[in-house]
Amino acid sequence: DGGITQSPKYLFRKEGQNVTLSCEQNLNHDAMYWYRQDPGQGLRLIYYSQIVNDFQKGDIAEGYSVSREKKESFPLTVTSAQKNPTAFYLCASSPGGGQRSGNTIYFGEGSWLTVV
Amino acid sequence: QQQVKQSPQSLIVQKGGISIINCAYENTAFDYFPWYQQFPGKGPALLIAIRPDVSEKKEGRFTISFNKSAKQFSLHIMDSQPGDSATYFCAASIETSYDKVIFGPGTSLSVIP
Fold this sequence. Notes:
Radius of gyration of chain A: 13 Å
Helix content of chain A: under 10%
Structural class of chain B: mainly beta
Shape of chain A: globular
Low-confidence stretches of chain B: none
Helix content of chain B: under 10%
Strand content of chain B: over 45%
Distance between the termini of chain B: 40 Å
Number of strands of chain A: 11
Largest sheet of chain B: 6 strands, mixed
Number of helices of chain B: 0
Oligomer: heterodimer
Structural class of chain A: mainly beta
Mean pLDDT of chain A: 93
Mean pLDDT of chain B: 95
């Protein structure tokens, strides 16, 4: 089945710890994204990548880092600099710019991160 | 100019009624307007999308109405069912560009029996 796989589904982080959320897609999409969603709130863009080895900051990049070494993978690291990381994290992908429906975004099932 | 406004923030509809969610945009270059449906604890899923060359698109009980001159588009859910209870996000983008997609803030819909 084609889709976006996020892992783990639930993650607990201790104060001062870095944690990494995994995201893999087999849709052959060029673009990938990370969004943060707080309870009852909308979608806020953390980072996005339109092509391998390139990524751009979104609206709330502080305290987060990403890498895009492979087309299929776009892991997100939540660093200790992120003071309020408890949230629902959504990875997404799209075919990519320059093509019809290039910006149709497909989301993964999400990962819950809780600070303990 | 990149903002997408969405209303209402929350909506309660009786089973069998019509749910209407409205969105407005400012950037006239936007040419692709999708709607997403999100159930609690799940990722949003593409529900229906419209391009400005048509004024209406219907898929089952879901219809998008598009008013290019007013820069507004809306989602109508006919014969609303309890299973439609979810959060709905509208979005806008320039379809073939590398610019990011702009999402509305979302509408929480509750359909009561």
